[in-house]
Amino acid sequence: MDKINKQKAVAFTGISGSGKTTAIVKVANTLQTLGYKIAIIKHDPKDKAMFDKDGKDSFKFAQTKADVVVTSPLKTTYFNPSPMSIGDIADMVSPFDFLLVEGLKTLDLPRICICRERIDQNYFEVSDTIACDDTIDKNLLPKDINILDLNDTQSITDWIIQNAKEMKT
């Protein structure tokens, strides 16, 4: 496959526990195997994610509400006490070939709805395709939307390569 020269993005949506994170990890690994540089953004609408432990220096720094960067020989972690736009985040993690976004259903991005075990039809109106497994009765899905096999990572990856939206930079 020819690599793209433009940064593109696609989003994943679905109910909690549907397999969004697992799907994103599999797609990211597949795209990286193909030579693409990947960036991932996860929306945390309830601000539940914890990145450090009380009592640690980096936790104390983050509590000051200043921008904090923790760097080590293997990684860099950035704590920002303010929300950032998708464009600002994309600029920060650039360069990338594909940006995979979990959540943020109000963003104008091509979107894959992940369905496993349960369906929430509210996600269908903001989705361009549905990826589901055998736990979902396909007769309950809209007839006018593309359906992918959730267990076929290659078909999901191919859909992303074909449908991801170019980011405005």
Instruction: Provide the gyration radius in Å.
Output: 17 Å
Q: Tell me which CATH architecture applies here.
A: 3-Layer(aba) Sandwich
CATH superfamily placement: P-loop containing nucleotide triphosphate hydrolases
Per CATH, the class reads: Alpha Beta
Assess the beta-strand content as a share of residues.
15-25%
Described by the principal axes of the CA atoms, the overall outline is globular
Number of strands: 9
Q: What's the story with the biggest beta sheet?
A: 7 strands, mixed
Structural class: alpha/beta
User: What name does the CATH topology carry?
Assistant: Rossmann fold
The total tally of domains equals: 1
Query: What is the number of helices?
Result: 4
Helix content: 10-25%
Q: Cα distance, first to last residue? A: 24 Å
